[in-house]
Each structure stands twice: as C-alpha cells, then as structure tokens.
Design a protein that fits this description.
Layout: E1 11-14, E2 32-35, H1 47-57, E3 65-68, H2 74-85, E4 89-94, H3 100-109, E5 114-117, H4 118-121, H5 124-129, E6 138-142, H6 151-154, H7 162-165, H8 174-189, E7 194-196, H9 208-220, E8 226-231, H10 235-241, E9 250-255
Parallel strand pairs: 3-4, 3-6, 4-5, 6-7, 8-9
Antiparallel strand pairs: 1-2
Helix pairs in contact: 1-2, 1-9
C-alpha cells in the first residue's frame, strides 16, 4: 500500500494508543496525524492530552465557565491553559496531597481562575467561593484519578448522590470516596457536562483540527506541559518518578 499523506521522518501522532516505553510502533497511516517539524519531539508524548483538552473545550463561547476535578493531570493542565487562551473561566480542583500547595500554585500560574484542593471542594466554603460565577457550561470529571481501578466498572459515571454510591464502593478507600464526592460536586455545579476517564465512555475523539489548535501553542511555549527526558539506562529511575505524588501531571520520555 502506498502512503501519499506522509513521508519518511515526518512527525506524527495517533488518536489511538500505540503503547508507551517503546522505540518503534506499527500503525495504519489513516490513523496518524502529521504535526509541525518545529514541535519539540518530547512533546509528542503529551500531544494526546492536549488534543483531548482542545476537543473538550471546542465550541464554548468566550466567558463560559468550565469546572474540572482533575486539574493536576496533563489533560487538566492543558484545559486550564487552552481555556485561558479562549477567554474561558476555569474552576480547578487538584487532588489532596502533601504537595497540594505547590500544585495549586502551578495551576494558578498557568491561568487557573479558581484553584482549590479536593478537600476544600467538598466544603460549604467552596460553594460560596463560586457563587458569583455563572453556572459552568462544562464539567469535566477525571475519574481516571481513582486509585481502585475496579471502581471504573462498578460505579456509574458520576451518577446519583454519593449516598447512593456508597453501597457500591463499600470497600473503597477514603481517598477514592473523596474523589467520587468531588466529581459529584463538580457535576452538580454545571448546567451541562462532559466526562473524561474510565467512569465515562472515555476521552472525546480528536484529530487534525485539535492538532492544528494545540501544536502552534506548544511550539511557541504558550501551552506548557511537564515533560521529563531520560536516557534508556535510567528506566528504573524514570518509572519511580512516574509514581509521583502527582503522577498524572508529567510525561516521562525515554531517549533511545
């Protein structure tokens, strides 16, 4: 089969996972999207997150409010920055952690309008904090942050009150229950919602349009995502770093 849309040495990304921690992958050319050659090669590892964020925000009018429960993930950080560029207002919840103050400061520095840790998001003070804002037009629930992967198949996609969910998650950790409650709070704030993560149908589809939106911003530094580069001999150290306090906000890249 002859491929006319791509050439040797083109930079490409795929909306379908090709796996990670590898030097070579085989894919159908129709599933690949060409990206500009001036984009830092290490950024290709987080292009998927940026494009998911662009797809989630597509079509929202300037001034619309977006609320998200996983602002400390790569997708969440991209949502914050792309929303700022589009003139949107963001309410951002970051996971409670010993490093939460640093993460709150990071999200604010990237343009987050309201940024709080998850323990604060389930308090009455949080409601008071956002009471003067219009109802969010979009809620993004990052169920992927749940520690217990089995909850993805036993809990409805952030549906129903937390009291109704408790019988389903009797064995869940207090941390997971907090994340579920945060997602309930986030969805309750919005008049319309989209979800991202295994509790939903999955991330939204994206393609050439989203790449065209995010690639120029990434190339010039207006869309900053955390990438750490390691030589192959440091695989064990990189894997340990990936376990993080906030493992989802960075991409580890191995240089072969």
């Amino acid at each position: 089969m002859c491929v006319h849309s791509l050439a040797v040495d083109d930079f490409v990304v795929s909306a379908k996972s090709l796996g990670a921690w590898r030097a070579v992958a085989k894919a159908n050319a129709a599933a690949l999207v060409k990206v500009p050659a001036d984009l830092p090669a290490s950024y290709l590892g987080c292009m998927d997150s940026a494009c998911v964020a662009a797809s989630l925000l597509k079509g929202l009018p300037k001034g619309a409010v977006v609320v998200q429960s996983g602002a400390c993930s790569l997708v969440g950080l991209a949502v914050t920055q792309l929303a700022k560029a589009q003139g949107l207002v963001t309410i951002n919840v970051v996971q409670t952690s010993t490093d939460e103050e640093d993460m709150v400061a990071l999200v604010k520095s990237l343009g987050g309008d309201v940024v709080v840790p998850s323990w604060y998001a389930v308090s009455g003070k949080f409601r008071e904090l956002v009471a003067d804002l219009p109802p969010p037009a979009l809620a993004i629930c990052f169920a992927a942050q749940l520690d217990d992967a089995t909850l993805a198949t036993t809990v409805p996609a952030c549906g129903g009150a937390l009291s109704q969910l408790r019988p389903l998650v009797a064995g869940a950790s207090k941390n997971d229950l907090l994340k579920l409650k945060v997602n309930e709070t986030v969805k309750a704030l919005a008049k319309a919602s989209a979800t991202h993560g295994p509790l939903a149908a999955g991330a939204p589809a994206w393609g050439a349009d989203e790449v065209a939106t995010v690639a120029p911003l990434m190339a010039c530094g207006d869309l900053a995502l955390w990438v750490e580069n390691y030589p192959l001999v440091d695989l064990a150290y990189a894997a340990k770093r990936a376990e993080g306090p906030y493992p989802g906000f960075r991409t580890m890249v191995l240089n072969f």
